[in-house]
Specification:
The chain has 373 residues and is mainly α. Helices cover 58% and strands 8% of the residues. It has a 3-stranded antiparallel sheet, with no helix packed on it.
Length: 373
């Protein structure tokens, strides 16, 4: 750690443990009292460490012991308050994760004239020798991503508490945002039932194609967990475990063509309607303008696309020996923006608010950084 002293102000560079050590040495008259007195005593351009400015009241030399004691107390108090904010936020994230799990597993409550209720009246979708209701398809394709978001939210809470990995938290927050947007896209109440169905079947085509690619890469090493889960003594096949995914793809494509919907064959999967996170983040109805930023900033950090920013923030977290929660929050906007957009859309789709109190608590704590900006 380096330090400089200019009149009544003391400037320090180092992590918080170094600063506490300096204060204790200062208190006991150790080597820390012999500080360089000239300006620019340490290189301001050096990226390592953190700069601290502590101003004593009056002449710092007149009451060294009281000044140093107050300094240490302020550091300890600030650390405790930061940990309390972090822990409260992690609890709120866990609550949202639990709520998302329930939304993914249990039927949604809906009002009589809601878009969700209207989807239940739509004719069944004939896929080969099977018939599925539109509401079931939309619900399933949304629930797959709701449960993904729930699990990633739990991971985000763990990373908040650990304060050990900035990039890990940023990557998980990006995953939360992506899962929430896919879940939102298929229940968008501002489009028609047929348009929602087109999005849901496009997502199903993407999932089925990805599953085929994975199986081809790993051969017989892929086991479907559904094969080992029994409900009331019968194998639950809602995920299509016992069906041929290639046939399912052909059935969906045939259904779309019978409906007169154009089907485009892309590099990875057929598409009934173009869908991407980039497009959804800029076009979903309930967005508030931060969604595009949440997606691109998380992407740029995770992929190192803005190398100077990425390097400086990661280096800061390494120098501090921790990834403080306020720094994680700064670069993890997607962990807030994704759930907000999904819950707002779900409320309009079903006509009922879900997780209202839990979300309000989560949002308040997410943006409470104790004065950090």
């Amino acid at each position: 750690m380096t330090a400089g002293q200019f009149g009544r102000a003391v400037w320090l560079r180092g992590d918080i443990a170094d600063v506490r050590l300096w204060a204790r040495e200062y208190l006991h008259g150790g080597p820390a009292t012999r500080l360089p007195m000239k300006e620019n005593a340490f290189p301001w351009s050096a990226p390592s460490g953190r700069v601290w400015r502590v101003t004593g009241e009056g002449d710092a030399s007149s009451d060294d012991e009281a000044w140093a004691m107050e300094f240490i107390d302020r550091l300890n108090r600030g650390t405790q308050e930061a940990h309390e904010r972090r822990d409260a936020l992690a609890v709120a994230v866990d609550e949202i994760a639990h709520g998302f799990t329930q939304l993914g597993l249990k039927p949604w409550k809906m009002r009589r004239k809601s878009p969700a209720r209207e989807d239940m009246k739509a004719p069944d979708v004939l896929l080969g020798d099977r018939a599925e209701s539109v509401a079931t398809i939309l619900r399933y394709e949304s629930a797959v991503n709701i449960l993904s978001a729930a699990d990633q939210l739990r991971g985000f809470a763990v990373l908040l508490r650990a304060e050990a990995s900035l990039m890990g938290a940023v990557s998980v927050a990006r995953g939360i945002f992506e899962a929430c947007l896919w879940a939102t896209a298929v229940i968008d109440p501002t489009i028609t039932t047929d348009e929602r169905l087109q999005r849901a079947l496009t997502r199903r085509l993407a999932r089925l194609s990805a599953g085929i690619r994975l199986k081809n890469m790993l051969g017989d090493g892929v086991n479907d967990a559904d094969q080992f889960i029994e409900i009331d003594g019968d194998v639950d096949d809602q995920h299509g475990s016992n069906r041929d995914p290639a046939k399912d793809i052909d059935d969906i494509v045939s259904y779309a063509k019978d409906r007169g919907w154009p089907v485009k064959k892309s590099r990875r999967a057929s598409e009934i309607t173009p869908l991407s996170i980039d497009w959804l983040s800029e076009n979903l109805e309930r967005r508030i303008g931060l969604e595009g930023y949440a997606w691109t900033s998380g992407s740029s950090m995770a992929h190192g696309e803005h190398a100077p920013d990425t390097a400086s923030w990661v280096e800061l977290s390494q120098d501090l020996g921790t990834a403080p929660a306020w720094l994680i929050q700064l670069w993890s906007t997607g962990a807030w923006a994704g759930p907000r957009l999904f819950l707002a859309t779900l409320a309009n789709y079903t006509g009922r608010v879900s997780l209202g109190r839990e979300y309000q608590r989560f949002e308040g704590l997410f943006w409470n950084t104790g004065g950090k900006s």
